[in-house]
Each structure stands twice: as C-alpha cells, then as structure tokens.
Amino acid sequence: MRPSLFFSAFEPLHENPEVCDICRANPPVFGYEVATCGAQGEAKEKRGFCCAHSTTILLHILQCDESQNWAEEQAALNADESDVSDFRQHRLAASRDKENRV
Length: 102
Known about the structure:
- Helix content is 37%, strand content 21%.
- The chain is an alpha+beta fold.
- The chain starts with a strand and ends in an 8-residue tail after the last helix.
C-alpha cells in the first residue's frame, strides 16, 4: 500500500462539521482521507474535515512519512551494496524541511 492523502469539498447542507479535526480551532473547509501503514504494515485510514491551514500539516506529515520510508528502503539497498543514488536524491528532496515538522 502506498501512503496517500486526498482532499475534497464537502456539502455543508448535508455534512455539518463544526471544527477542524486536526487543529480543533478553525472551521473546516475540506474533507480529507489519509491512508498510511502502521508499524506492523497494517493499513490505517483516517477521514475527517480540516481547515485550510491544517491541509499543510497533513501534507507535511505525509512528506515526512514518505521520507522515512525511502530512508528505510535506501538502508536495505545499501546493505545489498546496490546503487542508491536515485533514492538519496528523492529522500533529500522529501526531507528538506524535516527539522521544521509541525
């Protein structure tokens, strides 16, 4: 399973969320679905509503998780003495702002 994040509009007449599920402070403007893998490889899904600011938080979390996955794959390839230059380039691009994780 590949981690994924989807945003969508929601129908305020049929769905009535009061606050963002992420920050618990602002009114939501998007619906979201997040699919990730748990520590044991099990699929984890979360759905909810978020404000515009929290979309950047969700994207940043996905970016950091993907960077971690690439680092683990790179380490496994290093152990097999495989060429990891492509992994390194993509991982560095994904982890550029890792120290600023929200």
